[in-house]
């Protein structure tokens, strides 16, 4: 596996396994069920294993290679929603990272398009765009005091105010 995440209630484990192509199989294990007797649900997604986030007890997020951010139901592995930015897909290029704020109220997506975006974890609405890098954002972190750090292939690191998008 290249990714393992637990829901906050520790009932489900989500495991990501690259398929060898450009996609990843995600398997959801119900930790209250004997696994040798149950074939867990599996979903194949066009996503890097780094780009999955266990949002809450019911939902996971994946960032795809075509810039989509998809919300999935943990139990059924069914797609619930594809996030959008003014009617367009979430990002113009592949998603490179997704991080949840420590208080679980926001999440941040980063992309090869050089933009990071802050989303409300409950409503899935876009809060702010973090625009300032000239190349792909490779990593992000979210602090406890509403700051977002981004690192980019343009050899810069930026620190942003989550709500306003200001550096």
From TrEMBL:
Q: Which InterPro entries match?
A: WD40/YVTN_repeat-like_dom_sf, WD40_repeat_dom_sf, WD40_rpt
Q: Which UniProt keywords apply?
A: Repeat, WD repeat
Which parts of the chain are WD repeats? 88-129, 130-167
Parts of the chain that traverse the membrane: none
Q: Which SUPFAM superfamilies match?
A: WD40 repeat-like
Q: Name one Pfam family in it.
A: WD40
Q: Which residues form a coiled coil?
A: none
Annotated Gene3D superfamilies: YVTN repeat-like/Quinoprotein amine dehydrogenase (2.130.10.10)
Entry protein name: Uncharacterized protein
- Organism of provenance: Rotaria magnacalcarata
């Amino acid at each position: 596996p290249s990714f393992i995440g637990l829901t906050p209630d520790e009932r489900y484990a989500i495991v990501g396994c690259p398929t060898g192509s450009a996609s990843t199989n995600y398997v959801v294990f119900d930790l209250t069920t004997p696994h040798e007797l149950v074939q867990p649900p599996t979903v194949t997604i066009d996503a890097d294993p780094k780009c999955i986030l266990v949002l809450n007890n019911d939902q996971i997020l994946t960032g795809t290679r075509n810039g989509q951010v998809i919300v999935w139901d943990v139990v059924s592995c069914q797609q619930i929603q594809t996030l959008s930015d003014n009617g367009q897909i979430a990002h113009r290029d592949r998603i490179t990272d997704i991080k949840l704020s420590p208080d679980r109220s926001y999440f941040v997506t980063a992309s090869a398009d050089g933009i990071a975006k802050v989303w409300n974890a409950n409503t899935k609405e876009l809060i702010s765009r973090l625009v300032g890098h000239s190349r792909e954002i490779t990593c992000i972190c979210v602090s406890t005091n509403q700051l977002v750090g981004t690192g980019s292939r343009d050899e810069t690191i930026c620190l942003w105010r989550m709500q306003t998008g200001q550096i």
